[in-house]
Amino acid sequence: AQSVTQPDIHITVSEGASLELRCNYSYGATPYLFWYVQSPGQGLQLLLKYFSGDTLVQGIKGFEAEFKRSQSSFNLRKPSVHWSDAAEYFCAAGSGGGADGLTFGKGTHLIIQP
Amino acid sequence: DVKVTQSSRYLVKRTGEKVFLECVQDMDHENMFWYRQDPGLGLRLIYFSYDVKMKEKGDIPEGYSVSREKKERFSLILESASTNQTSMYLCASSSMVGFLNQPQHFGDGTRLSIL
């Protein structure tokens, strides 16, 4: 069965520190991979996507993610977090780009300490 | 920018009522989706649609139906609402550019409470 795992339910990071959020997937073939962010009371905003090609992808708000096929991982990183980055982060995978239903991880809640 | 609009941010209904959640997108997208979001469970796909009058079941379709009479509008219907359908409901849409399917864009969600 297809699945996406985000091992960390909560992560606390000091403002200005670096960030890495983990995501592992289990799929029959290499899926399309996404990271979304959700601020309180809001919908999901796309941070970045991986479809093919360069395994290091750049997104909005200074985020990047690296696809590692050997580890079935797609971890999200940011070199220096800001208080406004506090939110819920979701990793998602799909076999048809955005044309079929996505399988989401359960999310990682990011807390920023001053 | 893509705009996906859900008609209500908050909705309170009673058990047994028929409930309609409406979603409209303004970018002529072919694909539309309904998810529900519950704490600790992430998002789960209820139904999706590739085209007008087309629908496909997602992972948790029981207790729900959908309608897509126009390309821009995708409705989620709770035939007889129950308390276990209290949740946040998120609508999304996506398109195809060339032969490449584009990422999904989400609305702000409808928080539905069934009493």
Characterization of the model:
The complex is a heterodimer of chains A (114) and B (115). Chain A is mainly β and 114 residues long. Chain A is built from no helices and 12 strands. Chain A has strands at residues 3-5, 10-14, 19-21, 24-26, 32-38, 44-50, 56-58, 64-68, 73-78, 87-94, 103-104, 108-113. In chain A, strands 2, 5, 6, 10, 11 and 12 form a 6-stranded mixed sheet that branches. The termini of chain A are far apart. Chain B is mostly beta strands. Chain B has strands at residues 4-6, 10-13, 19-25, 31-38, 42-49, 56-57, 64-70, 73-78, 87-94, 96-97, 100-101, 105-106, 110-114. In chain B, the strands form 3 sheets. In chain B, strands 2, 4, 5, 6, 9, 12 and 13 form a 7-stranded mixed sheet that branches. In chain B, strand 7 (64-70) and strand 8 form a beta hairpin. Chain B is globular, with a radius of gyration of 14 Å.
In short:
The complex is a heterodimer of chains A (114) and B (115). By secondary structure, chain A is mainly β.
- Element order of chain A: H for helix, E for strand: EEEEEEEEEEEE
Give the low-confidence spans of chain A: none
Briefly note the structural class of the backbone of chain B: mainly beta
Low-pLDDT windows of residues of chain B: none
- The overall strand count of chain A is 12
Shape of chain A: globular
Counted by DSSP, the helix tally of chain A is: 0
How many helix segments of chain B? 0
Helical residue percent band of chain B: under 10%
Report mean pLDDT of chain B, rounded to a whole number: 92
The Rg value of chain B, from CA coordinates, equals 14 Å
Helicity range of chain A? under 10%
Basic shape of chain B: globular
Q: Report the major sheet of chain A.
A: 6 strands, mixed
Structural class of chain A: mainly beta
Subunit organisation of the chains = heterodimer
The end-to-end distance of chain A, rounded to whole angstroms, is 41 Å
Average per-residue pLDDT of chain A, rounded, comes to 92
First-to-last CA distance of chain B: 36 Å
